[in-house]
Write a structure and sequence with these properties.
With 683 residues, the chain is of the alpha/beta class. The protein has 4 domains: 2-165, P-loop containing nucleotide triphosphate hydrolases (Rossmann fold), CATH 3.40.50; 178-273, Helix Hairpins, CATH 1.10.287.1770; 293-484 and 505-512, no CATH class; 519-682, no CATH class. The protein is 65% helix and 8% strand. The chain has helices at 16-24, 68-80, 94-106, 118-123, 130-137, 152-165, 178-194, 196-202, 204-212, 216-221, 225-242, 246-265, 276-284, 290-328, 338-355, 358-374, 376-390, 398-403, 408-414, 421-430, 437-450, 453-480, 502-536, 550-560, 562-574, 581-592, 596-604, 613-620, 623-635, 640-650, 653-682; strands at residues 2-10, 28-32, 39-47, 50-56, 84-90, 111-116, 126-128, 140-143, 266-268. The strands form 2 sheets. Strands 2-3-4-1-5-6-8 form a 7-stranded mixed sheet, with helices on both faces. The chain has a two-stranded antiparallel ribbon with strand order 7-9. Helix 5 packs antiparallel against helix 12 and helix 14 (290-328) runs antiparallel to helix 16. The longest helix has 39 residues, at 290-328. The model has no long low-confidence stretch (mean pLDDT 84). It binds guanosine-5'-diphosphate (GDP) and magnesium ion. Guanosine-5'-diphosphate binds at residues 10, 12-18, 59, 116-117, 119-120, 145-147.
């Protein structure tokens, strides 16, 4: 005879006592929990070769520290470590009842769900996909009718099975959103360091969550002042972002998890849902309407980002033009100075060229945090989940990919919302194929140079589409090869809709804008100076330049410089793509930051004889070459900032280099094929 203890938890009136009676029959013992006048019922149950001690815990809605009942139930589970916790759920009002289940899951309790009141649920027209739901929640589920003694065997089998498996670390956790997760991460690390034994017993994550919820009991257990101090700081920070107690936001997120799980597994034959959030969901995640609404909203975001962004962008361009002019005027007209050239061509040309996009970036992120904070983004991921599954990805991968149209760097950061590592890596790898804002500058230069008015719009559309298609293909291929493995289904959270808070949106937007400025001020500044140096030295002897006009002199100088020589050196490699050494030098610049491609071409084709850069390009290359340049820039090597971010987020140079060379190789192959086949027709 093997012995098991099982504790019954559940909301008041969910039918706990009925289940307790069903399991134990007459073999009951009634006492009190030590020190309090709360009734403790214990009973025995024999099944197969098991003797199960069943304890009826007090009925609770939650496991916080607000009432004696909650504390008793929680401490029993922590201190007595029952082999199984049976959560009796009133399945006719499932969403409210599952809240307790999320708490038990978070405590890593070995959980079995008794879906009680299943007779009433059926009367209400609720149909559960028990198998899928139990996969999502990673628990066994047994439907029961407590007062009619139905479902006993299945419940007992589930209990025994769960007891046999023991406590296993849960794979999927409730995702509390970027801000809270960041604080949790910090606290967890600190707890592991300062509160070793306690975190062994209760789990770091659970402790960290309880600290954010300002759980008085857990705070009392923590001895280390620095942990409490850090927790208070985190709470304060979150309170300022959300304008609400973190505890409330955390509870909202748990309901979001439940709502997502139910949305996918429960069908109602009768229309029951009627609160405002549900009505909004009725339209926004509607099977047919959901996708077009979503696409329209995204279209709006992009249009607004670029339309409104045009104005501040123009002002910034004027400002940098003025700055360059002012600096140039420090030197008498016509004088040569390396410092002037470094400041004007290197620093302002490079960094200024990037900062002018700041308004677009800010607007895009403002729109995205508006959608995120209102709860809509979670719906977008929910809608895309079906499509993304076909690619071996998860619906949540969609959000980072979307951000990738703005810039790969924050997009890669945003993959933190993906908990499955293979999924996350796959998403990171294909993000650079989402044509970023910087690449738009390249298209904006090249498309009008090579394509007639009517073809320009469609051309741009085709380029973006090629990026998306390649991303889809690459993701699928990666999931079948390098990142092979099952996609375990997990819950797409559907947090309740909230009125977005201005402060929170400003903080988000500023945070991301600041990251972008930092990139411009550090990486891009360094690279601009480096490229400028490469393009300026060594200088040819002055007598070799006599008799040449200004434009020819600049070309000669460039050819003679390190940059020019590197361009020449790689020319044989890029010849089959239709590129010459001039494009080669610009491509090297583009690896630093895509925007540099344009400014670099500007230097190579120095303006003279009143011809614009565009006219010169048109005179020098065929439209096929123009298209191939765009294709190559779209697919090839992600910029240095992206590589650095991939390295940071994957914590591996290996993956960063894999991405860099993988995409460059792909770009080479695709462009090669397009150019060679294209030449057959054009030639
Ligand atoms: P507790 O507060 O969780 O201990 O709930 P009880 O076991 O006392 O049950 C509350 C009420 O629900 C009682 O009247 C039970 O007879 C009834 N009940 C329990 N289980 C079921 C069930 O599966 N279906 C129906 N229709 N009623 C139930
Ligand atoms: Mg009872």
């Amino acid at each position: 005879m093997k012995k098991i203890t099982a504790a019954i938890a559940g909301n008041p009136n969910s039918g706990k006592s009925s289940i307790f009676n069903m399991l134990t029959g007459a073999r009951q013992h009634v006492g009190n929990y030590p020190g309090v006048t709360v009734e403790k019922k214990e009973g025995l149950c024999r099944y197969k070769d098991y003797e199960i001690t069943v304890v009826d815990l007090p009925g609770t809605y939650s496991l916080s520290a607000y009432s004696v009942e909650e504390l008793i139930a929680r401490n029993f589970i922590i201190e007595q470590q029952p082999d199984v916790v049976i959560d009796v759920v009133d399945s006719s009002v499932i969403e409210r009842n599952l809240y307790l289940a999320t708490q038990l899951m978070e405590m890593n309790a070995p959980l079995v769900l008794a879906f009680n009141m299943s007779d009433i649920a059926a009367q209400k027209g609720l149909h559960f996909d028990i198998e899928y739901l139990s996969q999502l929640l990673q628990t066994k589920i047994a439907p029961t009718i407590g007062n009619k003694q139905k479902g006993k065997e299945k419940l007992l089998d589930a209990i025994i099975e769960t007891a046999r498996q023991g406590r296993a670390e849960r794979v999927h956790k409730i995702n509390y959103g970027e801000e809270i997760e960041t604080e949790l991460e910090k606290l967890e690390a600190l707890i592991a360091e300062k509160e070793g034994p306690l975190s062994q017993k209760l789990g770091r994550r659970w402790l960290a969550i309880k600290l954010l919820e300002q759980d008085s009991e857990i705070r009392g257990k923590i001895g280390d002042e620095s942990v409490l101090g850090a927790a208070a700081g985190s709470v304060e920070h979150l309170r300022s972002i959300f304008g609400d107690e973190p505890e409330i936001v955390i509870a909202d997120r748990r309901y979001g998890f439940i709502s997502g799980a139910c949305q996918e597994t429960i069908k109602s034959t009768v229309e029951l849902r009627h609160d405002r959030s549900d009505m909004a969901d009725g339209v926004l995640i509607h099977r047919v309407l959901g996708l077009p609404i979503f696409l329209f909203l995204m279209y709006l975001v992009f249009v607004l980002t670029f339309r409104i962004g045009e104005y501040p962008m123009g002002w910034l361009e004027q400002f940098f033009g003025w700055l360059a002019g002012t600096i140039t005027n420090f030197w008498p007209a016509g004088t040569e100075s390396w410092l002037k050239s470094l400041l004007v061509d290197g620093v302002i040309g490079g960094v200024g060229g990037v900062i002018v996009f700041l308004p677009n970036i800010l607007l895009l992120f403002m729109a995205i945090s508006l959608l995120e904070d209102s709860g809509y983004m979670a719906r977008a991921a929910f809608i895309m989940d079906r499509v993304m599954h076909k690619l071996g990805l998860h619906g949540k991968s969609f959000i980072p990919m979307l951000i990738g149209f703005g810039c790969s760097v924050p997009a890669i950061m945003a993959t933190r919302i993906l908990e499955n590592r293979r999924n996350r890596l796959t998403t990171i790898m294909v993000i650079p194929l989402m044509s970023c804002g910087a690449r738009l500058t390249i298209y904006a230069l090249l498309i009008p140079a090579f394509f007639a008015e009517g073809w320009r719009g469609p051309m741009l559309w085709v380029i973006y589409l090629i990026g998306i298609l390649l991303a889809v293909i690459c993701a699928k291929v990666l999931r079948l090869t390098v990142f092979r493995g099952e996609t375990v289904p997990f819950v797409m959270e559907l947090p309740p809709y909230r009125m977005p808070k201005l402060k929170s949106i400003c903080i988000h937007t500023w945070h991301r804008g600041w990251m972008y400025l930092k990139k411009a001020g550090t990486i891009i500044l360094a690279i601009s100076i480096l490229l400028w140096t490469m393009g300026s030295f060594p200088k040819p002897k002055p007598d070799s330049l006599t008799g040449l006009n200004a434009g020819e002199i600049q070309q000669k100088k460039l050819e003679y410089s390190v940059m020019g020589r590197v361009g020449r050196a790689i020319e044989p490699v890029i010849r089959p793509l239709g590129f010459d050494w001039k494009i080669g030098t610009a491509l090297i610049g583009a690896a630093a930051a895509k925007e540099v491609f344009v400014s670099q071409l500007g230097i190579v084709y120095a303006e003279d004889q009143g011809q614009t850069l565009r006219q010169k390009l048109q005179a020098s290359y065929t439209p096929l070459v123009g298209f191939c340049i765009m294709l190559f820039c779209l697919i090839s090597a992600p910029c240095v900032a992206t590589v650095a971010m991939t390295r940071q987020e994957t914590n591996s140079w290996g993956w960063a280099l894999f991405q860099f060379f993988g995409l460059t190789g792909l770009a080479y192959a695709v462009t090669f094929i397009v150019y060679q086949i294209g030449s057959l027709f054009a030639g």
